[in-house]
Amino acid sequence: MKKGARKPSTVRRNMYNAPNHKKRKYLSAPLSPSLRAEYGTRSMPVIVNDTVNITKGDRKLAEGRVLRVDTKDRKIYIEGVTRTRQDGSTVQIPIRTENVLITRLHLDDEWRRNMLERKSFSAEEE
């Protein structure tokens, strides 16, 4: 028998009310095929300075660097993806992480490099 909640409303409630350290996991995005082959993993949590490609929506095929990750609203803000307001000012458009593809990883974070080593090690065993 399966574990965990089955009702979509329960899953959504748990996701919205989760603490920030768990919401961080919900901000994962799939890796590009070349990165997937190189690191042996399908997805990674998005961090600032990753380069992503938008795969859905009216901004499809736009590529840019991640400027900000909003864990509270589960959105990311990408360089160059802006909208002009009625008063003439420009604002960043929030994008969901499931609608992007990571094309270049920012590997200055030691924790992230260690995670990739762990994941690629488990891929080599299989």
The parts where pLDDT drops under 50 for at least 5 residues are none
Strand percentage lies at 25-35%
The description of the largest β-sheet is: 5 strands, antiparallel
Count of separate structural domains: 1
The N- to C-terminal Cα distance equals 26 Å
Assign the structural class, choosing from mainly alpha, mainly beta, alpha/beta, alpha+beta, or little secondary structure.
alpha+beta
Mean pLDDT score: 90
- Determine Rg (CA atoms, Å): 16 Å
Order of helices and strands: HHEHEEEEEEH
Give an account of the 3D structure.
- This protein is an alpha+beta fold.
- The protein has a single domain (8-125), classed as SH3 type barrels, CATH 2.30.30.
- 31% of the residues lie in helices and 31% in strands.
- It is built from 4 helices and 7 strands, in the order ααβαββββββα.
- The protein has a 5-stranded antiparallel β-sheet, with no helix packed on it. A two-stranded antiparallel sheet has the order 1-2.
- A hairpin with a 5-residue loop joins strand 5 (75-84) and strand 6 (90-95).
- The longest helix has 16 residues, at 110-125.
- The radius of gyration is 16 Å and the shape is globular.
- The protein starts with 7 loop residues before the first helix and ends with a helix.
Which helices and strands occur, and which strands form pairs?
Layout: H1 8-16, H2 20-26, E1 28-30, H3 33-39, E2 43-45, E3 51-54, E4 63-70, E5 75-84, E6 90-95, E7 100-104, H4 110-125
Antiparallel strand pairs: 1-2, 3-4, 3-7, 4-5, 5-6
